[in-house]
Amino acid sequence: MTAAPPPRRFRNPVLPGCHPDPSVCRVGDDFYLVTSSFEWFPGLPLFHSRDLVHWRPIGHAMDRPSQLPLDGVRASGGLYAPTLRHHDGRFYLVCTLVDGTSWSGHFVLTATDPAGPWSEPHPLDGAGIDPSLFFDDDGRAWFTATRETGRYEGHTEIYLREFDPSALTLTGGEHVIWDGAVKGAIWSEGSHLYKIGGRYHLLTAEGGTAHDHAVMMARADHVTGPYEGDPRNPVLTHRHLGLGHPIVGTGHADLVETPGGEWWMVLLAMRPHHDGRCVLGRETFLTPVRWEDGWPVAGPVEPSHPSPSLPEHRWPAEPACDHFDAPDLGPSWNVLRTPRERWWSLTERPGHLRLRARPVSLAANPSFVGRRQSHPAFAAYTALDLAGEHASAGLALVQNDAFHVLLLSTGRELRLVVRERGVASVLAEVPAECHRVRLGVEAHGRWYQARYSLEPGRWEPLGAPVDGDLLSSQVAGGFTGVYVGVYATGDGGHADFDWFEYSPLG
Q: pTM higher than 0.85, yes or no?
């Protein structure tokens, strides 16, 4: 007899790099997922899967400047914790814009195709963050969100209101349905409602979105409560495993059922490089769920799990090198805040990405096009031609405006610049009297090594490796991971980037 093949396994995270606060929904045999995007544009990246493991990007829900006023938004402000749901042939996406300068608050978007186009945002009443929608089987729909109470630092409550899907408004009175599962609970948030086995189940996050993060469950016989907590709460956490565990900060989850009746949980977590510090940000993980006594049992979240009992469905691999020969930037690229002018071009010099050098800092809408760092070890390279006496351009590793690393060509020299707590320091400098240069960075955990090449095939290090701890959210603050990409700055001139290559190492 021939032995049965071992079961397929998948590796976590299923969406590496800064993809926090995942929300998932199923439509037939297809799964769709959205994550937070904060101050990055376009906003709210959307993904499609048929096996919950392999995800392909299908666009962004907010890809038009008219939808998304990120002007002046602080680092780690912007778009918080979206929820994606589908009902009667229509997709609904609710989210919160935090610290917007022209408007802020909850809103809802709609689309008939998750790949877009999505509507303009419709504002929704209410304070707080982390909105969610629930469509009941009696035809009614409900909105939940979290808000601070002021009773003590970090105390929040989950409130409920009815949602009118046709008018896209909230109606009726408020019902406060939850304020935490444990005594002294902080940051009870990220709520989602489900009806399972005839009962209403409320899934929440708790403990803050760092190492003490946790997933809690409560249930009720009526949607407005009262809700009783799962006696085994938290239903998922890694906070008891310590800072040295390879996966920490598990929380902010959403549940989905497969066509075959399996239950799975998508959630955020982090992969620290040492001492609990992480440059990748909060990533999207997947873990199985089973039900016991009417309560979910989940996790722990492992680097590898047996795959869902779904046909494996891989998508074509994205090329490692972008030659900038498409008419538009691909979905992996982002810019900081809403661009109000077109400072980049893929057509002025075909086969190149042209960035106009402008005297705009990384605290605004700079000439920076970046993608998420998605691996603890990676190499990124580019080749550029620089034009303009007062222009500089090259590679940038960006955590936020006060913490970043720049590898720049001025046309006269190459400089390795680190900005930490808002103070810039030149770590290394070499003469380079040329306008054509190749630049690269190689990362291994916390260490980033800058490299350059003035002639093909000959690469040299620029300075010593940079300690990437300064790019971790534990040092730099905020909720995002590192972005790596191409950058231009100055008063006039431009840089033409011939290609950009990103490859994982090991």
A: yes
